[in-house]
Amino acid sequence: MAGASPRKRRWEETEGSLEVEVRAVSGSILGIFEMSRKDTVYDAKARLDGAPGRHHLLAAEGQVSDAVALGSLAQEERLLLTAVRRRLGFALAAQLDGSLTMWDLEQKDVVQRMRCSLCQPQTPTCLLVDWDTSRLLCCLEDGTLYLWGPSPSDSSLHLLRVLQDTDQGAAAGVRSKEAVAVDWSEGTVLVGTASGQLMLWCLSATAKPRIFRGHKSCVDVVRASFPDAALSACRDRTIRLWNLETGSSRICRAHSSAVCCLLVTWESRQFLSAGLMEGLRLWHLDNLRVGEDFTGGPSTVSSCAADWKEGRALTGSRDGDVTLWDLGLRQAVWSCPAHEGLVEAVSLEPRGSRCLSVKGAVVFLWDLAGALLRRLPGPGAGDDPGSVIVAGALIRSLTPTGWYAAPWSGPVQRACAERMASIGAASLSAVESKVDQLQETIESHAVALEQVRQVLELQLKQQESASKMSLQTEVRSLSECIAAAEEVEAARRRWGRDPGQEFSMYTVGLDFFLQMTELKAHEEMMTSNLLVEFHEGLGSAMFLSHQWLADHHPDPNHEQLRVFQDAMRNLMSGVTRVTLPVAAELLFGRLPCPTADDFKAKPIFVWYDYLCCPQGVSSTSARQRHAAIRSIPSYVTKCEYFVVLCPTVERADNSEILGLATWAARGWCRTERLARELSARKGGYTIVVECSKQQALYMDALRILDAPGTGNWSRESDKAAVGNTLVQMVWNKLLFLLERRDFPGYRFLLNRQGACCFNGLPVEPVDSLIPGFVTVLDPFEDAAAFAVEWFLHHNGFRTVLERDPAGWSPLCYAVIRGDVALVQGLLQRRADPNDQVTKGKGSLFPGRMPVLALAAHFHHNQVMETLIAARASTHHADVARATPVHWASLANNANGLRMLCEARAELMKQNVLGMSVFDMACCNGAVESMAEILAQNPEMSMRFGLHFAVMFLGGHEKPIQWLIHAKADLEEKFEVQRRKQPEWWALIQMSSLRHRISPSRWTTLAYHHSKATPLMFTILTGNCSAATLLLKAGARTDTKNARGKTALDMAEKMKLPKALIQALRGGSPPQLSCVDDIQFLPDAFCI
Description:
Layout: E1 18-24, E2 29-35, E3 42-48, E4 68-70, E5 80-85, E6 90-95, E7 99-104, E8 109-115, E9 124-130, E10 135-140, E11 145-150, E12 157-163, E13 180-183, E14 188-192, E15 198-202, E16 210-212, E17 219-225, E18 229-234, E19 238-243, E20 249-253, E21 259-265, E22 270-275, E23 280-284, E24 289-293, E25 303-307, E26 312-316, E27 321-326, E28 331-337, E29 345-348, E30 354-359, E31 362-367, E32 372-376, E33 388-399, E34 402-408, H1 425-464, H2 468-495, E35 506-509, H3 510-513, H4 522-527, E36 532-533, E37 540-546, H5 559-573, E38 578-579, H6 582-588, H7 596-601, E39 604-607, H8 609-612, H9 619-630, H10 632-638, E40 639-645, E41 649-650, E42 657-658, H11 660-665, H12 667-678, E43 685-689, E44 695-697, H13 718-739, H14 743-756, H15 783-795, H16 810-817, H17 820-828, E45 836-837, E46 849-850, H18 851-857, H19 861-869, H20 884-890, H21 894-902, H22 917-923, H23 927-936, H24 945-951, H25 957-965, H26 982-995, H27 1001-1008, H28 1014-1020, H29 1024-1032, H30 1047-1053, H31 1058-1064
Parallel strand pairs: 37-39, 37-40, 38-44, 40-43
Antiparallel strand pairs: 1-2, 1-33, 2-3, 4-5, 5-6, 6-7, 7-8, 9-10, 10-11, 11-12, 13-14, 14-15, 15-16, 17-18, 18-19, 19-20, 21-22, 22-23, 23-24, 25-26, 26-27, 27-28, 29-30, 30-31, 31-32, 33-34, 35-36, 35-39, 41-42, 43-44, 45-46
Helix pairs in contact: 2-13, 6-27, 10-12, 12-13, 13-14, 14-16, 15-17, 16-17, 16-18, 18-19, 18-20, 20-21, 20-22, 21-23, 22-23, 22-24, 25-29, 26-27, 28-29
ANK repeats: 806-838, 1010-1042
Protein name: POC1 centriolar protein-like B
Coiled coil: 435-466
């Protein structure tokens, strides 16, 4: 190296300064910035050039407290690994072309370039530096180690040794910079390889490495305490503790997702781990047993740092949250929605009061109370901000006893900070004196507070007799508010967010909302002071779910607004009322519906996204909007009313007709519906508003399979944000069920979440809520047995043949989970392939329902193959006499139907109501199932298919048009035969008699059912959209039923829209987009 020795050059350092390094991908520029704790001025201290081209930065490592590893993920094809030595004033970089570059930080020029490979260029994975002895270790992607050191003749670096195990070949490759641990004093390095092996090298010799075998997949993280022990994490989600002397290891299943970080304190024999989709866990190193899970914060971790002596940790999440944790209490101290998306790195200042977080070019400096101190900029003026990425950072603190540098970089953070020396005796004495003074002050304040309390208590007793009744009234009002808020506060604690960390729930008073003539954006509403920050003491909240009619505005012509306003005025005045759908009453009886008095009992405040969420394009608005989206579960929990506003209207930009069917198919609307389902609120109503004159209760048991990820999304990128939010929703609901000791409900949600919540989303289900799992089984030696033990533990079962109070066995839950290996493992342990649900779960899953029917209903066709191969019967029926083909048909599982037919299932079998497999498909509008049934049996009767579609959930455009195209009889008259269908006949007759005493939509249908045509059924169920489709197809209007009534008579009696009545009189069928006159009200089921 030319010039003065770098060891003699030091930076000018100031107490409490902060240095951050950033790199612009548009050029090889290393910018070094310093932020003083006492001011807000930043200064570019160095900008380095010299390595040509654009670089893809990857996280690298440096020696503890002396070197800083720089790196961050980007999307370029080149690679640069950097290590910087502040105290000696130079920097090193390893490049993709196999060269090493050294900069002089003071002169800002290239000092030396060296070739890292004597043959072809290799890809550097990790760069480790020993600044005390001027040695560096470069690890390539193929596992080759290059050891560089000072030349005996001059100060330049030259290649000392190449360590390579040619016998292992590609198996020795290294895929992660976290997979290398080195001890320069011992002269040993431990490397985790892509094949799952650990290789222990001696840097002073060229002998073959010592091989440790145990992992079966790529090792991503290695931590070592040479020469005794090491800890490694594998991509199969396991952690192994190694004895480096004997080569033995112990294994534990750590997380349900890949382990992204390990932070170890060998002195205290503890370590922290985090999964990509799970929060922190604190483990005991000696027995590999996990303690209590951390609570109160986000469930995902992307980066982590720890200060063991102070007992705190800092994490960044995939959602952009930065969270400070108390390691002693195992809970979050605070959590802030800091960044947009994954937090790439975090860092803690030891014994200090600051911390850092980074996402791309955004670097935030926080204090340990959770307050944002400042944001650090990019490399500086003249650089394109869009091309700036953070390459690394460190917190510097000059103390009376030394200097500290804490590195952080990349999406996987390791806590490699060296603790500062203890404060001197004089400083310690001064601190203790200050503590004593504070203690005396606190004690004096406590005495004063006690005196105040006594005075207030005396005054209260004097006033008690005079205002006893008033006081009781106030206490009762306060108790009601507390009771209303209790479950909301409990949900917030499970959600892990302090109220200060959420975006406030802004609402609009219903009285004012009904007077609005136009919808204004959130920012304009805030400026006009028209929003109210809702809390439970104000009254009731109403969540308004709707579809946007244009990209720039949710309701450009205010069509939806007018429908909602008229509907609410009608409901509150008693002109209309919320009715119960036919199917809901059939399955669950008369359920309570909200009345006009309920809507007027308390003030109502409306949450509408365009009014209550930031709509701006600034970074602040985007961050607040992201926080509001993540706060939707808490909003829904606060809302007593969940209103689905879906009138039949035309979208402004593409003329698409929108209604309830399109609402149910939209990804964001499914997310809101699922948030309602997963909320911890015990009461409340979900109401469908499709026009001003008819409103119905919406309870969607058959929507259980409508996962948000399988819905329609205008932007696929939204799925990631929704997936992360849903993970927390499910976690919250699972904890709620455990608190209520609803273990069957907990098991049902835990195992159906993959199919019902996360299907189609880029996230993994919650899989490890119950701590304390210990087993002697090795997942690589007996994967099936290990999976069974893991499943039984997290579902609270002791044996395979056990059954819970709901009548469900482990195999029942495993089937709806859809894990083929797990089902095979249970069958190997003598589980019955013909197992059944012995007790009904409401009307959704009746008693004696076979596990094969469960698999068919949840679209787990591979599980069906496994059960059929184990000789599960395709003919077993539940108490409603429905077989697996009925359940596959109902769920629109065409492939499952085909599989059952190949296994000789009976398509002609009818259930207790006399409904065939084809009728079941019509009930749910399962077009694919209908087509498959007719393909399997062309002679299958379509009798009453249109009637059943209109009566239940299939009365929307696609199934109705399919049936019309398939030549279903438009004039077919409905009839139930007493001898062939005695149960169905008896139910209709009893409901018909009840109609005279207590009419409802179902009893009206039962009263007029005999000889009624499909068009009459659409009138009786209020499904005017289906009626319009039948009229356009040529349905006759003069046909009479057994009571001599025509469709026109029924429409006039039920006061249906004038446009439809005119069409029934012989006019033209109304247009579907006529908002004022058309309703689309298919009945729904309940959960």
